[in-house]
């Protein structure tokens, strides 16, 4: 199973949710060779619930996952800002992710983000996996958390965007932190649009449908991380495309029609 641990279902969190854009994204993810992805949408994106409601209505449920008609498997998740600076991933059932998002409602604006210590207490009320997203990206202070708090993470994100910008530094620091904490390091592209799919992914020996089974395989090391030789070009092109599509929207155009040819 080729799995991308860090993806988004919208072009940008302040743009309206588009069913056509999301459909296009997931079709392109399948075309890029992925079997599954973790949908770690920003917790404060516009229409978070509408995005998940749409996917739950159009997919078949298998364990904790949502299986689309094209065969792409989605592990529901969320990406949350913390007060210290940095982002935290969580993975769980669709119902759990939606409930956590609802409970985070008072903390979705800058200045109101929860410190990680409070966030992890909330997350541990539920059956979710918790990951440190791109811990060594500029602005992230996750590595500066106390050892006690760092040990609360279930996994670390070797992020495709950062690998593309500086692979040696990103891999070295992320793997050193994983070794120090005895936590698995897995990978995600961090894409908001399709060009970045496949720049990095995590390949498992089997195809679990339960988050707890996925975690068992992560802890057993039953996977390998694959980085595309074209990752820098893919990430750079994705950034250019994202900026162009946002500008089309800002000028009143239909970026979905331009992109998907509809």
Task: Write a compact overview of the structure shown.
This protein is an alpha/beta fold.
Q: Can you walk through the features of this model?
A:
The chain has 262 residues and is an alpha/beta fold. It has a single domain (2-260), classed as Alpha-Beta Barrel (TIM Barrel). It has helices spanning 19-31, 48-58, 94-103, 116-123, 147-150, 160-165, 167-181, 211-220, 231-250, 255-260, and strands at 2-7, 36-42, 60-62, 65-67, 73-81, 87-91, 129-133, 155-159, 185-188, 200-204, 223-227. Strands 1, 2, 3, 4, 5, 6, 7, 8, 9, 10 and 11 form an eleven-stranded mixed beta sheet that branches. The protein is globular and about 50 Å long. The two termini are 31 Å apart.
Q: How many strand elements? A: 11
CATH architecture: Alpha-Beta Barrel
Evaluate the radius of gyration: 17 Å
Q: Give the N-to-C terminal Cα separation.
A: 31 Å
How is the biggest beta sheet arranged?
Answer: 11 strands, mixed
Helical run tally: 10
Helix share, percent: 25-40%
Order of helices and strands: EHEHEEEEHHEHEHHEEHEHH
CATH fold-level label? TIM Barrel
- Looking at CATH, the homologous superfamily is Metal-dependent hydrolases
Structural class assignment: alpha/beta
Report the portion of residues in β strands: 15-25%
Mean residue pLDDT: 96
Ranges where pLDDT stays below 50 over 5 or more residues in a row are none
């Amino acid at each position: 199973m080729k799995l991308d641990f860090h993806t988004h279902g919208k072009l940008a969190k302040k743009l309206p949710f588009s069913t056509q854009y999301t459909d296009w994204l997931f079709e392109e993810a399948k075309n890029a060779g992925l079997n599954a992805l973790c949908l770690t949408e920003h917790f404060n994106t516009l229409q978070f619930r509408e995005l998940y409601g749409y996917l739950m209505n159009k997919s078949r449920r298998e364990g904790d996952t949502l299986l689309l008609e094209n065969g792409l498997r989605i592990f529901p998740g969320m990406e949350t800002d913390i007060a210290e600076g940095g982002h935290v991933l969580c993975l769980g059932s669709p119902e759990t992710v939606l409930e956590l998002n609802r409970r985070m409602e008072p903390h979705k604006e800058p200045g109101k983000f929860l410190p990680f210590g409070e966030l992890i207490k909330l997350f541990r009320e539920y059956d979710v996996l918790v990951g440190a997203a791109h811990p060594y990206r500029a602005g992230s202070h996750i590595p500066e958390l106390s050892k006690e708090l760092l040990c609360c993470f279930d996994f670390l994100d070797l992020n495709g965007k950062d690998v593309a910008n500086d692979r040696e530094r990103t891999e070295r620091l992320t793997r050193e932190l994983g070794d120090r904490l005895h936590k698995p390091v897995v990978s995600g592209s961090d894409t908001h649009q399709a060009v970045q799919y496949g720049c990095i992914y995590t390949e498992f020996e089997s195809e679990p449908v339960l988050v707890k089974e996925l975690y068992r395989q992560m802890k057993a090391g039953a996977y390998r991380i694959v980085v595309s030789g074209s990752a820098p070009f893919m990430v750079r092109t994705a950034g250019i495309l994202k900026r162009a599509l946002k500008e089309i929207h800002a000028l009143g155009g239909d970026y979905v029609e331009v992109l998907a040819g509809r």
